[in-house]
Amino acid sequence: xxxxxxxxxxxxxxxxxxxxxxxxxxxxxxxxxxxxxxxxxxxxxxxxxxxxxxxxxxxxxxxxxxxxxxxxxxxxxxxxxxxxxxxxxxxxxxxxxxxxxxxxxxxxxxxxxxxxxxxxxxxxxxxxxxxxxxxxxxxxxxxxxxxxxxxxxxxxxxxxxxxxxxxxxxxxxxxxxxxxxxxxxxxxxxxxxxxxxxxxxxxxxxxxxxxxxxxxxxxxxxxxxxxxxxxxxxxxxxxxxxxxxxxxxxxxxxxxxxxxxxxxxxxxxxxxxxxxxxxxxxxxxxxxxxxxxxxxxxxxxxxxxxxxxxxxxxxxxxxxxxxxxxxxxxxxxxxxxxxxxxxxxxxxxxxxxxxxxxxxxxxxxxxxxxxxxxxxxxxxxxxxxxxxxxxxxxxxxxxxxxxxxxxxx
Length: 409
Ligand code: HEM
Hints:
Its cofactor is heme. By secondary structure, the chain is of the alpha+beta class.
């Protein structure tokens, strides 16, 4: 039977999205008792999807495409124009392979030792009280610059951190913060473009085994070098999210603060820490939804999906779907003992396949940096959490709890 997708009436619901934040899609899914709901956002008809089966649908590249799928405001801040996120088909596969080729075992191992070094250096240079989020952004900016091989001076790291973080901290904001985010992107892209040109005309030497060199000389599926602007966008697709891991590191400390017994367990070994980290990525909100568009009209569960319609897949909501998770609003790392590694049920960094789909290229790297940081603080640093009750808001995207720790030297 042909049915229309359950539809929320009204001209536009963008303001409710700002108010309800991470609950926006869950609320509508519950209200209409449906895994797909139609609404209007930014003046456009939009489908909202939630759950494992919906994720399988969403990542079917015969049914959805990414070209210009994201609203222009997100392209001007978070994503940049012309990067891998907006590619489809062969062009996407080829570009994505470039990203995945950077994620070798050795290079992931190396980034873990860089992070550890940078944490040590940071703690040695700083006073007793450390604000985790601020510290992590600097540590991660230094890590990202070293790991990618983007030429920079020791003292530039602060500046890089202060321009990279607005790209994810303020991308979803309106007004002056949005403008700051856009301006940061403009500055960083032009800085990187200059470096690309210098490497190409051999006036600047960079380390050859690193990401920057690799992307500068990458050839597309037609054998052409990438436009210097696209190189800049893709390098920012490495630098920006590495610094954004600061949000997860802050949540790690919030979890240690709120669930001390779980933190005690995580001291014991790699597997315990891994489950703790997975639960941090499941439980706390970060990336609200992934965005695509319907490629051609199709039917799903009796509902007609219309070509070109913007479609959001609820990442937070799927990670809290009671059909998939027992007591989804409890922090229980133990649940990951039984998790079978399905690519569509646990999707904080997107779902599906890395190579043919748009799943986050940096997921392993993220988990590794979280693992090494958690181990470092639980087992190698003498620190204390002052009494605090930091809160985060479910309508801030991303939410940042702002944890403090005291280091005991
Ligand atoms: C894509 C989340 C860290 C590189 C994505 C997507 C999400 C995501 C939700 C989009 C999935 C989709 O559109 O279907 C996160 C979160 C991170 C993180 C929460 C934690 C900080 C990283 C890191 C890197 C990275 C560390 C690189 C070093 C990318 C790239 C894409 C992507 C290149 C585009 C993939 C594509 O379009 O094929 N990420 N990410 N991310 N991420 Fe991440």
